[in-house]
Amino acid sequence: MAATQEYKCPCCGGGIAFDSSIQKMKCPYCGTEFEMETLAGYDSELRNDQSDDMRWETNAGTQWQEGETGGLRAYVCNSCGGEIACDENTAATSCPFCGSPVVLTGQFSGALKPDYVIPFQLDKKDAKEALIKHYEGKRLLPKVFKNQNHIDEVKGVYVPFWLFDAEADVNMRYRATRVRAWSDSRYDYTETSFYAVRRGGTIGFERVPVDGSTKMPDDLMESVEPFDFSKAVDFRTAYLAGYLADKYDVDADQSVARANERIRRSTEEAFAATVNGYTTVVREAGSIRLENGRVKYALLPVWLLSTTWNGQNYLFAMNGQTGKMVGNLPVDKAAYTKWLFGLTGIIGAILFAGSYLLWLL
By CB distance 3.0 to 4.6 Å, which of 95, 151, 225, 352 could disulfide with 77? Predict the structure, then answer.
């Protein structure tokens, strides 16, 4: 005995059946009627849905050649475990991540040689000035923090990043509605039309960055973007002179999940922006299939500024190329409470005024 085809209502998802009185398929839950040809086409679209395919070729970086690391030294932080590299003339006195003393371990070894580096374009003075500017306009910042705070450490650090390139073949399916309302002398009417909307195409991604260090907060590193990759050059150890270089502890394979998430989010936003003219739009399904996925290893310039206040360490980061400054600041609890009560009062006054106007009407 052959199995019967079961259809789901595209509007509400309920099971639908053939109604002999109208010679159409009808949903008993929302009352929507469908021609058989319409449902057959919709069912064909569902069967053609594909799953994501987001695989990468992760052979990033190159092996160090003999003699290339002769001028590099390694330091390890006993507190957070951070391992950094620098040239042999750099005197590292404290960890750029947590401020604890570091221990010289000798000759740098291990890891891969970066493919690219973006050299620092801003110096330590620029970083200090950017932090002071970062304080401006922060009404809830404690005055004592701004006036008496001193910067414990300012260090230029090359942060390891994996850069992901790919072309994405994308197919998206959305459920959309258009709602039309009108009235006559007796009734108010609302008509809802349902649509199955498809979008397909390709979108290219170049140098999607994912930092390869567990010591660097991911949100901090994503906030300090973007970098201008037109200024990237082939890596040379000479660029490390006077700076520190964080040694990656998250390899390219381990970074794929974050790269895929960034690509998926950007792709969904880009394609959803093309679905216009509807009252509501909900993504039902979609697939992203990557082609020519490649990964490169790069060192990107970041100034790290560490300061301590009330026994708590605050870490700020500045893009060493563009000057963009990010970092969390303490909040004056008294000022926050005053601001919150003031905001509550304003909202209450607006609601009261609105209620009064409705009462008058």
Answer: 95
Q: Counting every residue, how long is the chain?
A: 361
**Which tens digits make up the pLDDT trace of 54-73?**
777 777 777 777 777 777 77
- Element at 126 (helix H, strand E): helix 124-135
Average pLDDT, the chain: 79
For the entire predicted model, the pTM comes to 0.73
- How far apart, in whole angstroms, are the C-alpha atoms of residue 214 and residue 258? 13
The domain locations on the chain are: 72-168+203-339
How much is the average pLDDT of 212-228?
A: 90
End-to-end CA distance of the chain: 67
Place of tokens 């020519």: 292
> 170: Cβ–Cβ under 8 A, 6 or more apart, which residues?
199, 200, 201, 202, 203, 267, 271, 286, 287, 288, 289
pLDDT, one tens digit per residue, over 141-161 is 656 556 555 666 788 999 999
> Which run of H or of E encompasses 347?
helix 333-360
26 forms bridges with which residues in the sheet? 17, 33
Q: Which residue has the tokens 């998926």?
A: 264
Structure confidence at residue 316 (pLDDT): 86
Q: Please list the residues that pair with 285 across neighbouring strands.
A: 173
| Cβ-count burial 176-199 (b if 16+ within 10 Å, e if not) | beeeeeeeeeeeeeeeeebeebeb
Q: Nearest CA to 252 among 61, 118, 54, 109?
A: 61
pLDDT value of residue 147: 58
What is the widest separation between alpha-carbon atoms in the chain? Answer: 91
b/e code 257-285 from CB counts within 10 Å (16+ = b): ebbbebbbeebeeebbeebeebeeeeebe
